[in-house]
Model the fold of this input.
Amino acid sequence: MRKVPCVNALAATFCLLSAFSSSAEQVGPANLERVEVAGRKSEVSKWFRAESQRFVVYSDAREEDVSLLLDNLEKLDHVLRLYTRSLREAGRQEPKLTLYYHSRASQLREIDAGMPIDAVGLYSSCASGVQGFGVHLERIPSLADEQLDKSPLNDTLSYVFEAYTRHFLYRHTDIRIPTSFIDGFAQYFSAVRFSQSQMVVGRMPKEIAGYLRLLTDSRMSSLEYGDVLQENLANAHNYAGPGGVRLEFEAKSWLLTHYMLSSEDRRQRLNRYLGLVDRGTSPTTAFESAYGLKAAEINQVMWRYGLRGTDALRVALPSLPATSVRFRALPRAAGEFVLADAALKACPSRPAGEALLKKVAGLAAQFPNDDLARLTLSRAQIDWGNPQDAMPALNAVLREEDGNFEARYLLGMANLRLAERTAGDARRAHLQAALGHLRSARGLNPQSPEAALAVFKAEVAATDAPDSAALEGVISAWQTAREVDALARSAALAYAYAGNADEAHRTLVSLAQNVRDEPAARWARQWQGRLEAGVSRGDILAEMRRNPASDAPFKEWTLDKKDVLQSVAFISNAEAGAAAIETMALNTSDPRRRAELAAAAQGLRMEATMRRKSAPDNTKRE
Done:
C-alpha cells in the first residue's frame, strides 16, 4: 500500500485538490445526546431514532452500533462530496436521508415481500420519498491508522458503503451511464475505511478479490471488458448462471474504476471519458478515445493491471466536525408502526398496499390515540383506500399540534386525491384545500421534496397559468433529490414551460440515460423530440397534469455476494477436477481404472450441475 500525505482525485471532475491535509485535525468520538421516554420500560419500543448531521436512522440494533455506523457514513458522505465537487450544485440545503438499520435481514421482507435471496440492503426511490434499508451483519470496529490496510473488511460497512455510494451518485449528480462506472465507483468506495486521522481508499472488496483470483487461476471468463463497458450481459454464460455473470461484471467494473482513479493522468482521462459518454458516444469508443487504447487491447491491459497495479492509498482524513448523534427512544405504540410506515412510503404495488392498509387498520385500533398510528393509517387510507376516511384523524392530530408537518402534508394529499375523483365545485373546493394545506406543509419543511412535488401538482391542477414560484419550487426540489424520476420529469416540464430550453434538455438527457427506469427514459426521449420540433405551453401544461403509470418506485437491492462466489468456486473446481480426471483416464491402459476415473469425472460434473441449478441469482432489480 502506498502512503501519501494528500491525493488529487479526478482532476476537474472529481477533485479533492488540496482538500486532504496532512495536518487535518483529529476527529473525536461521536458526540451523543439521548432523549428518554417517560414511563415504564415495557412501554418503550425496541426501535429507536438516531439523527446525525445528514441522516435519520430508525433501528432495533444496539445504540453503539448505530453510533459507529453514523460516524462512518458521515465521513463517507464528506469524502464523496469532495470527489464529486464539480458535478454538484454546492450550497443547497438538502433533506436528511432516512435509513432503517435492521438487526436481521429477514426484516427487509416487511418492506417488500419479494426480496431476493441474499438481500442485505435496499434503496427505494419514488414520489413519496427516498429511503435506505441496511442490515447489521457484524459489529463495526473502530480502527487505528495502522489497521486501515490490514484489518479484515467489515461486511456491515462494505455493503452499507456500496449502497450509499451508488445512491449518492444518483441523488447528487446526473451520471446515469455507464453502469460499469456507477457499479465500479460503488464497489471502490465500499472498501474505504476510516481511522480518527486517516483513511484508506483502493482496497479490494472481499468477494471482488475472490472472483478476480478465480479469473487469474482458471482464466475462465464470462465477459470481455468491452461487454462490461457496454453492460452487454445478455449472452454471457457463467458457472453460476446470471448471478455469476453479475458478480463478474461487478469485479471487472471495480478493476476498471480502480484503473481510472489510479493516477492523475488517468483521472484527467476519466473526465474526458465521462464527458464523451454523456454526449452520446458509446462507452467502449469513449474509453478507446480517452485512454488511447484500441478495443482489442483493453482485455490485456486490464489483465496486466489486475496482476500488479491495484495499490491502495492511505491519505490524511479530511477535516471533519465530530459526528453528533442524537438518540430518541420510541414508545411501544410508535415502534409497532415503524416498518409499516416505511413500507407505505416505499410506494408498494396495489396488492401490497391494500394488504398494508388492512394490517395498519388492525394495529391502529390497538393504539387509537397514538399520533404515528393515526398518521400511518391515514397514509394507507389516502393511497390505498378512501382518502375521506383519513381526514378526521388528521384534523385531530392538527388540533393537538398545528405545526405537525406530516399531518398537514397528508391532509393536503387527501384533498388532492379527492379532487382527482370529483368534478365541478367539489373538485375546486378540494383543490383549494389541498393547496392551503400543502403550502403550509412546505412552509413547515421547506426541504421536503415530496411536499414540493405535491404543491406543484396541486397548483398546475388548480390554475391555467402556474406562476414562477410553482415552477421554481419543483425545480429546486429536484435539484436536491435527483434520483426521483417523478421530480425529474416535473422539473424538465417546468423548465420547458418557463422557456428555459437548455435546462429542460439537460434534465431530459439525464432521464433518457437512466437505464434503471426504461419507461421514464422512453418518455424523456419522446419529449426531447417534441421540444425540438416545437410544442405549445398548453401541451406542456397538459403533460404536467397527467399522472403517468410509470410513477412506480425504483428499488435497488444490495446483495451478499458470498454464496455466488462460493458457487462459482465450487463449480469451477469441480469442472477443473473432472477435466483432469478425464485426462488421467485417457492416459491409462487399464480398462477397470479407466472406468473408475470416468465415473469419478461424471460424478463431479453432476455435482457441478446441481450446484449450478441452485446457485443464487443476484440480478434481481425492480
Notes: DSSP finds 24 helices and twelve strands in the chain. The first strand starts at residue 2 and ends at 3. Confidence is low (pLDDT under 50) at residues 2-29.
